[in-house]
Amino acid sequence: MEKQVKVAILGSGNIGTDLMYKILKKPEQMTLGLMAGIDLQSEGLARAKAEGVPVSANGIDAVLEDPDIQIVFDATSAKAHSSHAKRLRESGKIAVDLTPAAVGPYVVPSVNLTEHIDKDNVNMITCGGQATIPLVYAVSKVAKVEYAEMVSTVSSSSAGPGTRQNIDEFTFTTSRGIEVIGGAEKGKAIIILNPAKPSIIMRNTLYLAYKDGDSDQIQHSIDLIVREVQQYVPGYALRGKPIFDKRDTPQGKKDIVILLLEVEGAGDFLPPSAGNLDIMTASAKRVGDMLAKNIIHMLARE
């Protein structure tokens, strides 16, 4: 059997639980050695226990007590991760941060993971970032993106207490990710929680103002990145073709491309309407697999 890397999930809420099922479904280079939370009666810990995963209500202390755990998925909150990060680093564990804390560099698997494969802390940005940054990046490869604005609409039922507490961090972190990774000169992020019943799936509208770009090249670059993201997020899909236009702005007439994107969840734990959470856990799983492969490769060279 191929060697596997022992990992832990910190946080037993919706995101942590969905990630657990994804790892158990396709462990690849990872073996899930612990799910740690702070409430032994939580549904997440109960489900983990039923699946045969060791559980603890001692939070990060339980994670640090196991020297064999090498990768820790932190699915708590931005505030909590800010304190967890130092302790995980000091214990020699790699942190995959699913909160908007942004202690480590921003990572989007389809764009820049190889640049940060040796870091001890990587940040998964936000659901909106994971959804739209690949598209901004695709356009910026073949044109100069002067402005990128994303509007992410998600079901209110898929936004738990942690998501609501992190709304400010969401907008800031996503905007920065659009610039730092996507390559836009200026980025802006807006999130809308829609209470409609039945619940809607995640929908994102992306407006890009660009120059020195050819529409055919932009279309081709977008098609390539969409197929790459679909390798780990099957429910990731554009609605129709990119819309190319010219618009008057305070800076003059600009070339504009509008992209309409939907993300449907895989239904591993959360309903398909929770594509905003699914893209976070699917992306984190992808990052974990690649980090684990790198660890195994490094050990083989020693």
Automatic annotation (TrEMBL):
<dbReference type="InterPro" id="IPR015426">
    <property type="entry name" value="Acetylaldehyde_DH_C"/>
</dbReference>
<feature type="domain" description="Semialdehyde dehydrogenase NAD-binding">
    <location>
        <begin position="6"/>
        <end position="119"/>
    </location>
</feature>
<dbReference type="InterPro" id="IPR003361">
    <property type="entry name" value="Acetaldehyde_dehydrogenase"/>
</dbReference>
<dbReference type="GO" id="GO:0051287">
    <property type="term" value="F:NAD binding"/>
</dbReference>
<dbReference type="Pfam" id="PF01118">
    <property type="entry name" value="Semialdhyde_dh"/>
</dbReference>
<feature type="binding site">
    <location>
        <position position="276"/>
    </location>
    <ligand>
        <name>NAD(+)</name>
    </ligand>
</feature>
<dbReference type="InterPro" id="IPR000534">
    <property type="entry name" value="Semialdehyde_DH_NAD-bd"/>
</dbReference>
<protein>
    <recommendedName>
        <fullName>Acetaldehyde dehydrogenase</fullName>
        <ecNumber>1.2.1.10</ecNumber>
    </recommendedName>
</protein>
<dbReference type="Pfam" id="PF09290">
    <property type="entry name" value="AcetDehyd-dimer"/>
</dbReference>
<dbReference type="InterPro" id="IPR036291">
    <property type="entry name" value="NAD(P)-bd_dom_sf"/>
</dbReference>
<keyword id="KW-0560">Oxidoreductase</keyword>
<keyword id="KW-0058">Aromatic hydrocarbons catabolism</keyword>
<keyword id="KW-0520">NAD</keyword>
<comment type="similarity">
    <text>Belongs to the acetaldehyde dehydrogenase family.</text>
</comment>
<dbReference type="GO" id="GO:0008774">
    <property type="term" value="F:acetaldehyde dehydrogenase (acetylating) activity"/>
</dbReference>
<feature type="active site" description="Acyl-thioester intermediate">
    <location>
        <position position="127"/>
    </location>
</feature>
<feature type="binding site">
    <location>
        <begin position="12"/>
        <end position="15"/>
    </location>
    <ligand>
        <name>NAD(+)</name>
    </ligand>
</feature>
<feature type="binding site">
    <location>
        <begin position="158"/>
        <end position="166"/>
    </location>
    <ligand>
        <name>NAD(+)</name>
    </ligand>
</feature>
